[in-house]
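User: Fold this; tokens only.

Assistant: Input:
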Amino acid sequence: MIDLHMHSRYSDDGEYTPSELVEQCAEAGVRMMAVTDHNCAKANEEAQNAAKEKGISYIAGIEIDCTYENVNFHVLGYGIDFLSGDFEAIEKNIADQSARASLKRLSKTRALGFSQITDKDLLALAKNSYWKRSWTGEMFAEVLLAMPEYADHPLLQPYRLDGARSDNPYVNFYWDFYSQGKPCYAKTDYPAMEEIIDTIHRGGGAAVLAHPGVNLKGKEFLLEDLLKLGLDGIEAFSSYHSAKQAAAFYEAAREHQLFVTCGSDYHGKTKPSIAIGQHGCTVSDEEMEAAVGRMAL
């Protein structure tokens, strides 16, 4: 089994340490893996060492926020030089902006009808996080759903047990209220996709479009333009993609002579319905390894 997309505590919404992720991969039978934290490459050294001990082939990774035509996207970087100052600069830029955006999210959340939530609630939840002042929509959901004051609040009912959005309640709350275009969205100035692709290439890595079925929803016409920007691959197989979507992205990759990858986007508690190795990949491990194995450490 191969899984090239998962997040550790070095992501602002990840639960586990890099070593814990490796242990879980070993238990799940994963033989090739990558930890791809949001805008941060710091997990790679620990994950690489732990994977070596478990006999798992490891590919250094990162997932970087970027934009194209004013639409937010994620690009995965594989086989990167994770000690490069380029990735340190990306992390600092996003961390500084995230702290300011978090306060805006708090203000908008209170205006939405949750006036009892405070910065202390978010800081308490983030006390063990690497990103202590980056408060994601998932974190707001976790805090609000635990507050007795809002036990019967109508906006939260879909995310409670057996509710329509309860399969991944925290991340669904993020998508419904904090993602681009939603009422609690706080804009962050992400780099252009072309710049991020160049940065990944400069670091010796390969640039892969992450879970396009999510970010291209309603804007599928952008795919052809994206694939001409210098991307090396497409994450065709994702826990978010239907079999039909995965097949379409696989064919798009073949048409443009790009390779495909598979990734669960495992986070832990923020996405409880997603498990390691859950990506529906129909390509054999041998074919996948032939495409990406050269990047393994």
